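writing this on my phone so excuse typos. first protein, seq and then structure
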Amino acid sequence: MMKQSLFITGADGFLGHHLVLQLAKTYNVIGLVRSPKNLKRLKVGEITLCSTNEPLDEVFEQYQPIGIVHTATKYGRTGESVPSLLDVNVDLPIHLLELSQKYNAKIFINIGSFITQGKGYNYLQDYALSKKQCSQWLKLIANKADTCKVIDFTLYHPYGPRDAESKFVSSMVKAIKGKTPFIDLTPGEQKRDFIYVGDVVTAIELALKKYADLKAPYTQTDLGTGSSCSLRYFVETLKAVSGNEETDLRFGNLPYRENEIMEAKANPDLLNIWGWKPIYTLDEGLLLTLEQTVV
């Protein structure tokens, strides 16, 4: 029996490549990336890769995907222009959903972010606005046609191996594994719903199986563990799991960011109804991340 085709945007990204490793067991995965020649995580030939710059209408016609998982995103942290941000965070998913409807795909999964809650960090305002606008457009387009189910996940704080080194968790893992003498931190009272990337993958895998149960053409729901812990507890747990007794965690040496989100916890109600529960404890997820991190 031939495998059904599934498109994954951002296939070489943090979440994207973890999805590829798991979903390629079940689907014929077509990875949509900016440049198939500039890969950081995937190996050439591991899956079929197509550039988002080529005519996507032809890609859809050739592979006839049953679904699309949109993980590609641009944060705007490195001075990217607003048009380039909108191109990835708004224009691309809108175009993909319209093509999904045209070519009779059954499910479109969008990966949003909890950052859109609250007032938003000043340095991520463009990003947060673009993600909000993306959701608004996806809802509008899905409700108009009602031919392809849309699940719009608000993803909380994923972590795991091979994430970008600029991310908070990656920088902490590298510093603690490398036994940095000290780390300056905020008081660490802000709470986050940290979810190991393996649990994110199983949630998305389940959604690909259960989407037909949804009655509405558009569904927005959370993707997280449903519990939160303070940043202080998270970093202290990371240090304990690593066996590092040398690094001095200097909580309170840095101020909170302006408009800091002090509590972020998912309500994964739809996933819970479907029987999904996170498998990895914080200790287990951090240990796996440490083991696969090169200092």
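second protein below, same order as before
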Amino acid sequence: MEQTKSGRGRRIGRRALIIGGAAAAVGTGAAVAGDDLSRLWWQVPGVDRPRVAGAVDATGARWVAASSANWRRADRPADYTIDMVIVHVTQGSFDSAVKVFQDPEHGAASHYVVRADGHVTQMIRELDVAYHAGNRAYNERSIGIEHAGFVDRPQDFTDAMYAASARLTAGICARYGIPVDREHIIGHVEVPGTDHTDPGEHWDWDRYMRLVRQAAARTARA
């Protein structure tokens, strides 16, 4: 893969190709309104979109920044198409997960961490590539959601956690046009090359997907 000056490989997404084509048309005399261009310029690969410090992508989430060593700056979905959500379990407490994701020596972090009471903390912007899947291609195309608890403790997966995580996943799917199915919403264990087993046999996929579909339907009606 060709590297940018920053050393970051970039794969151009479908949306970027469409916008790039529109920009080329403007250069050859196509009539495009100036206000449209002012909204779209940042979607061209290689141009960082405006960012607000502490901003979150999911309504109701609390921002706590992960160490910059645990993620890579990007401009998704302009440079990498987002078409997957990956479900994780922390194998520890909520507080310990937040702490290790802030540790530059840890080398990994997810975009979100969901607590037993349904509280959601966002630690990496969806724009950016989190080191959560153990597979570069999957990192680039996905959003990672950690759930506080242990894979062998079904009691850790509370009603509030399932509901909050389902709303979060439904919102992500709506933002990026991700199909609400098990091909696009997967567990860490399903990532090629992984040695992880989460979310484990006690994660109720049927229940979770039902809740995601219900949340998606409510979002569509809103």
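Confidence is low (pLDDT under 50) at residues 1-43. thats all i got for now
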